Amino acid sequence: FVPLFDKKFNLNEKNETAVWFAWAFYHLKDFEQVKHYAKFFSPKDIKQQIFIILYCISSGDLEKAGPIIEKSFEILAESRGAFNGSDTGLATKLLVSAQHLIELKEALKVKKMSSNENSNHNDGFIDSNAVSRMWKRRLESFRHGSDAWMKLIEIRSLLLSPEEHIDACLKMISALRKERQWRLIDRYFTRLFASVKSPLVILSEAKIK
To answer: Is the pLDDT of residue 156 over 70?
Structure first.
Protein backbone atom coordinates (compact mmCIF):
# COMPACT_ATOMS: atom_id res chain seq x y z
CA PHE A 1 0.00 0.00 0.00
CA VAL A 2 2.72 2.50 0.93
CA PRO A 3 4.53 2.51 -2.47
CA LEU A 4 1.19 2.99 -4.27
CA PHE A 5 0.15 5.74 -1.87
CA ASP A 6 3.49 7.56 -2.00
CA LYS A 7 4.11 7.32 -5.74
CA LYS A 8 0.67 7.39 -7.34
CA PHE A 9 -1.33 9.80 -5.17
CA ASN A 10 -0.98 13.56 -5.33
CA LEU A 11 -0.92 15.59 -2.13
CA ASN A 12 -4.66 16.29 -2.10
CA GLU A 13 -5.43 12.61 -2.64
CA LYS A 14 -3.06 11.68 0.19
CA ASN A 15 -4.73 14.16 2.53
CA GLU A 16 -8.19 12.83 1.64
CA THR A 17 -7.43 9.09 1.84
CA ALA A 18 -4.71 8.79 4.50
CA VAL A 19 -7.21 8.29 7.33
CA TRP A 20 -8.74 5.23 5.64
CA PHE A 21 -5.35 3.57 5.19
CA ALA A 22 -4.49 4.49 8.78
CA TRP A 23 -7.68 2.85 10.11
CA ALA A 24 -6.94 -0.33 8.17
CA PHE A 25 -3.44 -0.65 9.62
CA TYR A 26 -4.66 0.37 13.07
CA HIS A 27 -6.94 -2.67 13.14
CA LEU A 28 -3.97 -4.80 12.10
CA LYS A 29 -1.94 -3.28 14.97
CA ASP A 30 0.69 -2.19 12.45
CA PHE A 31 1.50 1.07 14.18
CA GLU A 32 4.51 1.88 12.01
CA GLN A 33 2.26 2.02 8.96
CA VAL A 34 -0.30 4.08 10.91
CA LYS A 35 2.44 6.56 11.79
CA HIS A 36 3.32 6.95 8.11
CA TYR A 37 -0.23 7.80 7.02
CA ALA A 38 -0.88 10.03 10.00
CA LYS A 39 1.72 12.44 8.66
CA PHE A 40 -0.87 13.55 6.10
CA PHE A 41 -3.58 14.39 8.66
CA SER A 42 -4.82 17.92 9.16
CA PRO A 43 -4.23 19.36 12.66
CA LYS A 44 -7.59 21.12 12.35
CA ASP A 45 -9.63 18.04 11.41
CA ILE A 46 -11.22 16.93 14.69
CA LYS A 47 -12.04 13.41 13.47
CA GLN A 48 -8.47 12.86 12.35
CA GLN A 49 -7.15 14.18 15.65
CA ILE A 50 -9.46 11.81 17.54
CA PHE A 51 -7.90 8.98 15.52
CA ILE A 52 -4.38 10.21 16.42
CA ILE A 53 -5.29 10.21 20.12
CA LEU A 54 -6.73 6.71 19.83
CA TYR A 55 -3.57 5.54 18.07
CA CYS A 56 -1.29 7.16 20.68
CA ILE A 57 -3.10 5.51 23.58
CA SER A 58 -3.31 2.13 21.87
CA SER A 59 0.39 2.17 20.94
CA GLY A 60 1.42 3.25 24.45
CA ASP A 61 2.50 6.80 23.60
CA LEU A 62 0.49 8.17 26.53
CA GLU A 63 2.43 11.40 27.07
CA LYS A 64 1.75 12.53 23.51
CA ALA A 65 -1.99 11.86 23.75
CA GLY A 66 -2.77 14.36 26.53
CA PRO A 67 -1.73 17.57 24.75
CA ILE A 68 -3.54 16.48 21.57
CA ILE A 69 -6.74 15.99 23.58
CA GLU A 70 -6.50 19.49 25.03
CA LYS A 71 -5.74 20.99 21.61
CA SER A 72 -8.74 19.15 20.16
CA PHE A 73 -11.02 20.68 22.79
CA GLU A 74 -9.71 24.08 21.69
CA ILE A 75 -10.61 23.24 18.08
CA LEU A 76 -14.16 22.43 19.19
CA ALA A 77 -14.37 25.68 21.13
CA GLU A 78 -13.54 27.63 17.98
CA SER A 79 -16.81 26.37 16.48
CA ARG A 80 -18.98 27.12 19.52
CA GLY A 81 -21.02 29.59 17.47
CA ALA A 82 -22.91 26.59 16.07
CA PHE A 83 -24.69 26.25 19.42
CA ASN A 84 -26.68 29.46 18.87
CA GLY A 85 -29.12 27.46 16.75
CA SER A 86 -27.75 28.54 13.37
CA ASP A 87 -26.44 25.08 12.46
CA THR A 88 -27.97 22.24 14.47
CA GLY A 89 -26.26 19.60 12.34
CA LEU A 90 -22.82 20.97 13.12
CA ALA A 91 -23.75 21.41 16.78
CA THR A 92 -24.69 17.71 16.99
CA LYS A 93 -21.38 16.69 15.38
CA LEU A 94 -19.47 18.87 17.84
CA LEU A 95 -21.29 17.30 20.80
CA VAL A 96 -20.44 13.81 19.52
CA SER A 97 -16.79 14.77 19.11
CA ALA A 98 -16.80 16.26 22.61
CA GLN A 99 -18.05 12.97 24.09
CA HIS A 100 -15.41 11.06 22.14
CA LEU A 101 -12.72 13.36 23.52
CA ILE A 102 -14.05 13.10 27.08
CA GLU A 103 -13.95 9.30 26.92
CA LEU A 104 -10.48 9.34 25.38
CA LYS A 105 -9.35 11.53 28.27
CA GLU A 106 -10.87 9.08 30.76
CA ALA A 107 -9.29 6.10 28.99
CA LEU A 108 -5.92 7.88 29.01
CA LYS A 109 -6.19 8.55 32.74
CA VAL A 110 -6.88 4.87 33.46
CA LYS A 111 -3.98 3.80 31.23
CA LYS A 112 -1.61 6.20 33.00
CA MET A 113 -2.74 5.01 36.41
CA SER A 114 -2.27 1.36 35.51
CA SER A 115 1.15 1.97 33.98
CA ASN A 116 2.46 3.87 37.01
CA GLU A 117 2.72 1.68 40.09
CA ASN A 118 3.68 4.69 42.18
CA SER A 119 0.54 6.68 41.34
CA ASN A 120 -1.13 8.44 44.24
CA HIS A 121 -4.51 6.70 44.27
CA ASN A 122 -5.99 9.46 46.38
CA ASP A 123 -5.27 12.06 43.71
CA GLY A 124 -8.17 11.75 41.31
CA PHE A 125 -7.82 7.97 41.01
CA ILE A 126 -10.16 6.29 38.57
CA ASP A 127 -10.15 2.63 37.57
CA SER A 128 -11.57 0.77 34.59
CA ASN A 129 -14.56 -0.53 36.57
CA ALA A 130 -15.62 2.99 37.55
CA VAL A 131 -15.17 4.18 33.97
CA SER A 132 -17.16 1.21 32.65
CA ARG A 133 -20.11 2.08 34.91
CA MET A 134 -19.93 5.72 33.88
CA TRP A 135 -19.77 4.84 30.19
CA LYS A 136 -22.75 2.49 30.56
CA ARG A 137 -24.89 5.29 31.99
CA ARG A 138 -24.01 7.55 29.06
CA LEU A 139 -25.45 5.07 26.57
CA GLU A 140 -28.95 6.10 27.61
CA SER A 141 -28.55 9.50 25.95
CA PHE A 142 -26.35 8.51 22.99
CA ARG A 143 -28.52 8.59 19.85
CA HIS A 144 -26.41 9.01 16.75
CA GLY A 145 -25.45 7.43 13.44
CA SER A 146 -23.14 4.50 12.83
CA ASP A 147 -19.97 6.60 12.39
CA ALA A 148 -20.35 8.05 15.89
CA TRP A 149 -21.04 4.57 17.30
CA MET A 150 -18.03 3.01 15.58
CA LYS A 151 -15.67 5.61 17.02
CA LEU A 152 -17.25 5.18 20.46
CA ILE A 153 -16.63 1.41 20.32
CA GLU A 154 -13.02 1.91 19.23
CA ILE A 155 -12.46 4.25 22.17
CA ARG A 156 -14.10 1.99 24.74
CA SER A 157 -12.18 -0.99 23.40
CA LEU A 158 -9.02 0.66 24.74
CA LEU A 159 -10.15 -0.49 28.19
CA LEU A 160 -12.94 -3.03 27.72
CA SER A 161 -13.29 -6.39 26.02
CA PRO A 162 -16.37 -6.96 23.81
CA GLU A 163 -17.97 -8.95 26.64
CA GLU A 164 -17.52 -6.01 29.02
CA HIS A 165 -19.40 -3.55 26.79
CA ILE A 166 -21.56 -5.87 24.77
CA ASP A 167 -24.56 -3.53 25.11
CA ALA A 168 -22.70 -0.71 23.36
CA CYS A 169 -21.36 -3.06 20.68
CA LEU A 170 -24.87 -4.30 19.89
CA LYS A 171 -26.22 -0.75 19.72
CA MET A 172 -23.53 -0.02 17.14
CA ILE A 173 -24.61 -3.11 15.16
CA SER A 174 -28.21 -1.84 15.34
CA ALA A 175 -27.15 1.55 13.95
CA LEU A 176 -25.26 -0.17 11.12
CA ARG A 177 -28.28 -2.36 10.38
CA LYS A 178 -30.55 0.69 10.06
CA GLU A 179 -28.09 2.10 7.51
CA ARG A 180 -27.83 -1.27 5.73
CA GLN A 181 -24.07 -1.45 6.22
CA TRP A 182 -23.92 -5.23 5.79
CA ARG A 183 -20.20 -5.57 5.07
CA LEU A 184 -19.27 -3.55 8.13
CA ILE A 185 -21.65 -5.64 10.24
CA ASP A 186 -19.95 -8.84 9.05
CA ARG A 187 -16.52 -7.43 9.88
CA TYR A 188 -17.56 -6.32 13.35
CA PHE A 189 -19.21 -9.64 14.13
CA THR A 190 -15.98 -11.40 13.15
CA ARG A 191 -13.73 -8.99 15.08
CA LEU A 192 -15.82 -8.47 18.21
CA PHE A 193 -17.95 -11.55 18.65
CA ALA A 194 -15.93 -14.48 17.27
CA SER A 195 -15.51 -15.94 20.78
CA VAL A 196 -18.62 -14.44 22.41
CA LYS A 197 -21.50 -16.89 23.01
CA SER A 198 -24.03 -14.46 24.49
CA PRO A 199 -27.71 -15.05 23.58
CA LEU A 200 -27.89 -11.30 22.85
CA VAL A 201 -25.27 -11.68 20.13
CA ILE A 202 -27.03 -14.71 18.65
CA LEU A 203 -30.33 -12.80 18.59
CA SER A 204 -28.73 -9.77 16.96
CA GLU A 205 -27.14 -11.95 14.29
CA ALA A 206 -30.46 -13.66 13.63
CA LYS A 207 -32.11 -10.29 12.91
CA ILE A 208 -29.62 -9.71 10.11
CA LYS A 209 -29.88 -13.07 8.35
So the answer is: yes
